[in-house]
C-alpha cells in the first residue's frame, strides 16, 4: 500500500466533500458514490458510516476491500480496512474539531458509527 502525500492530506483535511464508491460484487465496477465525512488522524484517512454497520456502502467496503474516493478535486483508488478500536477516541476528537458546528456530530461519534470506522489507503 502506498501512503497519502502531505499535499493530498492537506486537501483532504480541509474538505468535507468526500464521496466513497466501494467496488460492486464484480470487484471492478464502482458503486454509486455516497457522500460521507472524513478525518485525517496521524497521516491516515478515516471515514465512518452514519448508519453504522447496517450501511450498504460500509458493508460493500468490507466485502470488496477496495474502491474509489473523490474529494477536494482528487480521485483516488483506495483500499479499505476496519479501523483499530484503539484509535477511536482520537478519531472522535478529529470529528469534534472538524465538524463542531454540525447537528450530525453526535451520531457520528456514537457507538453505532464508531463500530463502522474504516481506514482508507491509496492503492498503487
From TrEMBL:
Protein name (record): DUF2255 family protein
Superkingdom: Bacteria
Pfam families in the cross-refs: DUF2255
